[in-house]
C-alpha cells in the first residue's frame, strides 16, 4: 500500500469519524430543571384547590392535589435521571470519537512529514 493511498484512507476515516461526532453532538439533550410546587404547602387545609381539565376548572381535594404533584415530581425526576444517563453516554461517545480523530490526524501528519522528507 503506497503512502498516498494510506493517506487518502486516513483522511476518509477522519471525515467519517468527524461526521459521527457531529451527529452525536446534534442529538444532545438539554437538561431542564423542575420546580417543586411549594405553593400547595402554604395553603390551609380548608383552602379551595382547582385542577384544570381541558377548559374547565374542577374542585379538588388539597391532599389529592399534593399527591398528584408529588407523583409528577417523581416522574419528572426519574425522567431527568434517565436523560442524564443518556447524556453521559453521548458525552463518552463524543470523547471516544474525538480521541479517534486526533489519533488519525497524528498518523496523517506523520505520513505527510515522511513524504516531505522523501
Automatic annotation (TrEMBL):
Superkingdom classification of source: Eukaryota
Q: Which Pfam families has this protein been placed in?
A: Prefoldin_2
Q: Which PANTHER family match?
A: PREFOLDIN SUBUNIT 6
**Gene Ontology CC terms, in alphabetical order:** cytoplasm; prefoldin complex
Question: Per its record, what are the GO molecular function terms?
Answer: protein-folding chaperone binding; unfolded protein binding
Q: Per the database entry, which stretches of residues form a coiled coil?
A: 73-107
Q: What is this protein called?
A: Prefoldin subunit 6
The family database entries (InterPro entries) matched by this protein are listed as:
PFD_beta-like, Prefoldin
In which organism is this protein found?
A: Arabis nemorensis
User: Which keywords accompany this UniProt record?
Assistant: Chaperone, Coiled coil
Q: Which family does it belong to?
A: Belongs to the prefoldin subunit beta family.
Amino acid at each position: 500500500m503506497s503512502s498516498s493511498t494510506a493517506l487518502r484512507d486516513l483522511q476518509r476515516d477522519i471525515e467519517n469519524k468527524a461526521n459521527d461526532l457531529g451527529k452525536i453532538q446534534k442529538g444532545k439533550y438539554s437538561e431542564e430543571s423542575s420546580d417543586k410546587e411549594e405553593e400547595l404547602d402554604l395553603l390551609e387545609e380548608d383552602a379551595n384547590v382547582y385542577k384544570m381539565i381541558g377548559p374547565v376548572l374542577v374542585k379538588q381535594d388539597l391532599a389529592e392535589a399534593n399527591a398528584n404533584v408529588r407523583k409528577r415530581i417523581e416522574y419528572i425526576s426519574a425522567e431527568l435521571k434517565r436523560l442524564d444517563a443518556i447524556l453521559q453516554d453521548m458525552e463518552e461517545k463524543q470523547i471516544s470519537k474525538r480521541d479517534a480523530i486526533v489519533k488519525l490526524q497524528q498518523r496523517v501528519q506523520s505520513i505527510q512529514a515522511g513524504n516531505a522528507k522523501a
